Amino acid sequence: MLRAICEDASVHPSTKIAFHYLVRLRNEALFLDTIAEIKQCFGDRFDGHLWITRQTDSDRDIGVEDLSVQIHKQVAPAESEVGKPWGWWDQFLQLAMEDFDTYKKRATSLAYICGPQGLTDRLLDVYEQQGMTTKSGHVQVEKWW
User: Fold this and answer.
1) Do residues 21 and 67 both lie within one domain?
2) What's the pTM?
């Protein structure tokens, strides 16, 4: 979607592109070359974040720095912590919502959510609390099943 927007130049030249990519492990991050191309297209207007939510082995993150994205690594939860609150959620939510902090920004924005069912459902709830819904066209969703 971002590649098409870049190629079509279909957003205003001052539009900021906030991109949050959540993966459990570094090797699950797909299309990193495409993300690098998108960063080049949008330049300083592209604010990219890669969230590695379980892996702590820094050796596996080699090469990600070349993308000019901020990397957020989290401590891997133990099996006994499954189902407990996500320690990284508050930090993620603050960054994810900062571009939608006013009614005007929300009314003229589109949020595209793609990921595992539990995460996408949780994000949908957050955006709906801000008045951004799939019915209004301000949120698009693709769930992994």
Assistant:
1) yes
2) 0.66
Domain presence at residue 133? yes
Domain count, the chain: 2
Residues 28, 74, single domain; the answer is yes
Coil, strand or helix at 18: strand
The H-assigned helical ranges of 9-131 are: 32-42, 89-97, 103-107, 117-129
Residue 53: which residues within 8 A CB-CB, separation 6 or more? 22, 23, 24, 74, 86, 88
Mean pLDDT of the chain: 75
Instruction: Find all residues with CB under 8 Å of 29, minimum gap 6, and list them.
Output: 21, 23, 50, 52, 64
Structural domain including 110 reads 102-145
Using 50, 70 and 90 to split pLDDT, how confident is the model at 62?
Answer: very low
